């Protein structure tokens, strides 16, 4: 049985604009709908997750999701995004990126062809790469007037001075190319709905207009509000850049920590948008959170749900254990259980000193005050040990005579020194 997709989005706060008749049409029959995804990298980041979750909710409600990779349009740059024109990607790079992105999408969508509404992944490079300019101008360009294209907000903003260099002809044609994508999917896959961010409304409605004028068909448009943080900052951006879905680009621990550290206001919004939890489950979780906000109940559910979805249950448990090492009373055994990637992610930014393995075995004071600058003097190191304030690999150092050998190394190369509660240092032996 189909569920009401539009109503599902409405209570989740995921609708900005919707073309009249969309909800009524989708209530009558199962339909195909698509979103566009930029394939210029071999991983999605969390800025893509709104569009991915739109497709996930769509499929859950009984409709068919289509993920369109903009292999052709992604080379141009969308004027609504104020982006620079992009470099042409070669076919091998596009193919690699497409395969990597599909592997990530498979965690959110069912691509099994035995499923009636199985997901589809397409790349507009496949149908645009050999489309001759004269043919495009004759077949497509004549159906949309320049007046119509100039009236779009994305175009008007650029022409009125947003962006120092104005708008190139290439960018100006973007909405025609996106409109053609919609028409192509309409004709080949029965796609009747395009979804996108609110800044895509002009491009999407160009597609519905092209379908109407050239094919005499009826298609629909729906956009979601751009996601921001409660403080007005850009969602998904940190000092280090994007939060990626690839564990090579953003470790599962850092991914988990991102969701765990969002504000209360953002957690209440994000848990609706980025999870498939039901309305009742979310309301119950919010009520529990309200009783003791300092326990961060909503953030913990959000971080658990997202980390398990993207990286799996095992990586989630590792992330929780790793958090305990940095913020709790964890053990040396738990520290040694971390893989190298998680260990370095947990202690990212901690002062790190490189030493030769030839220095081992070494007395603890010599190691921390002579071979490395953890302590400014032997006397200060000895005093810290006597006061019980020094830990090595999460174990109290009880004697100034302690020797450190290769058996003490974490992953065969690291020693973690801790002064007091919060000051960590890493010694790396090579």
Q: Which helices and strands occur, and which strands form pairs?
A:
Blueprint: H1 5-12, E1 17-18, H2 22-28, E2 32-37, H3 49-60, E3 64-69, H4 91-105, E4 120-123, H5 125-128, H6 133-139, H7 146-150, H8 153-159, H9 169-172, H10 174-189, E5 191-197, H11 201-215, E6 220-224, E7 237-238, E8 241-242, H12 252-260, H13 264-273, H14 279-291, H15 297-311, H16 313-327, H17 332-336, H18 340-346, E9 352-355, E10 362-363, H19 364-369, H20 378-386, E11 390-392, E12 395-396, E13 403-404, E14 414-419, E15 423-429
Parallel strand pairs: 2-3, 2-5, 3-4, 5-6, 9-15
Antiparallel strand pairs: 1-6, 7-8, 10-13, 11-12, 11-14, 14-15
Helix pairs in contact: 10-11, 12-15, 12-16, 13-15, 15-16
Per DSSP E runs of 2 or more residues, the count of β-strands stands at 15
Using the alpha-carbon principal axes, give the shape. Answer: elongated
In helices, the fraction of residues equals 40-55%
Question: What is the count of helical runs?
Answer: 20
Mean pLDDT, as a whole number? 90
The SS-based structural class is alpha/beta
**Into which percentage range does the β-strand content fall?**
5-15%
Explain this structure.
There is one protein chain. With 430 residues, the chain is α/β, with parallel strands linked by helices. It is 44% helix and 14% strand. The chain contains 20 helices and 15 strands. It has helices at 5-12, 22-28, 49-60, 91-105, 125-128, 133-139, 146-150, 153-159, 169-172, 174-189, 201-215, 252-260, 264-273, 279-291, 297-311, 313-327, 332-336, 340-346, 364-369, 378-386, and strands at 17-18, 32-37, 64-69, 120-123, 191-197, 220-224, 237-238, 241-242, 352-355, 362-363, 390-392, 395-396, 403-404, 414-419, 423-429. The strands form four sheets. Strands 1-6-5-2-3-4 form a six-stranded mixed beta sheet, with helices on both faces. A five-stranded mixed beta sheet has the order 9-15-14-11-12. Strands 7-8 form a two-stranded antiparallel ribbon. Helix 3 (49-60) links the parallel strand 2 (32-37) and strand 3. Helix 12 (252-260) runs antiparallel to helix 15 (297-311) and helix 15 (297-311) crosses helix 16 (313-327). The longest helix is centred in the middle third of the chain and has 16 residues, at 174-189. The radius of gyration is 27 Å and the shape is elongated. The protein starts with a helix and ends with a strand. The model has no long low-confidence stretch (mean pLDDT 90).
């Amino acid at each position: 049985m189909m569920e009401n997709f539009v109503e599902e989005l409405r209570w989740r706060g995921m609708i900005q604009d919707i073309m009249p008749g969309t909800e009524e049409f989708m209530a009558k029959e199962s339909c195909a709908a698509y979103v566009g995804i930029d394939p210029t990298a071999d991983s999605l980041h969390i800025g893509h997750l709104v569009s991915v979750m739109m497709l996930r909710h769509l499929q859950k409600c009984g409709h068919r999701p289509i993920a369109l990779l903009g292999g052709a349009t992604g080379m141009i740059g969308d004027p609504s995004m104020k982006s620079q024109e992009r470099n042409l990607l070669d076919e091998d790079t596009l193919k690699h990126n497409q395969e990597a992105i599909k592997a990530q999408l498979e965690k959110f969508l069912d691509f099994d062809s035995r499923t009636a509404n199985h997901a589809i992944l397409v790349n507009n490079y496949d149908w645009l790469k050999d489309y001759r300019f004269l043919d495009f101008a004759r077949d497509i360009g004549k159906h949309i007037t320049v007046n119509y294209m100039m009236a779009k907000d994305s175009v008007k903003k650029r022409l009125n001075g947003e962006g120092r260099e104005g708008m190139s002809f290439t960018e100006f044609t973007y909405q025609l190319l996106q409109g053609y994508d919609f028409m192509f999917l309409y004709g080949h896959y029965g796609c009747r709905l395009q979804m996108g961010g609110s800044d895509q409304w002009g491009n999407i409605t160009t597609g519905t207009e092209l379908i109407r004028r050239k094919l005499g068909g009826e298609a629909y448009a729906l956009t979601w509000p751009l996601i921001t943080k409660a403080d007005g900052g850009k969602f998904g951006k940190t000092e280090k850049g994007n939060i990626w879905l690839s564990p090579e680009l953003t470790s599962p621990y850092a991914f988990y920590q991102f969701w765990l550290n969002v504000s209360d206001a953002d957690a209440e919004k994000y848990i609706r948008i980025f999870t498939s939890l039901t309305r009742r489950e979310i309301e119950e979780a919010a009520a529990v959170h309200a009783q003791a906000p300092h326990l961060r109940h909503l953030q913990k559910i959000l971080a658990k749900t997202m980390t398990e979805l993207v990286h799996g249950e095992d990586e989630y448990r590792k992330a929780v254990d790793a958090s305990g090492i940095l913020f709790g009373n964890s053990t040396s055994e738990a520290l040694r259980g971390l893989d190298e990637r998680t260990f370095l992610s947990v202690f990212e930014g901690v002062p790190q000193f490189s030493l030769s393995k030839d220095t081992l075995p070494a007395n603890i004071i010599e190691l921390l005050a002579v071979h490395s600058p953890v302590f400014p003097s032997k006397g200060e190191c000895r005093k810290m040990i006597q006061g019980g304030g020094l830990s090595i690999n999460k174990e109290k150092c009880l004697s100034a005579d302690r020797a450190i050998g290769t058996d003490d190394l974490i992953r065969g190369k690291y020693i973690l020194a801790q002064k007091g509660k919060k000051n960590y240092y890493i010694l790396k032996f090579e």
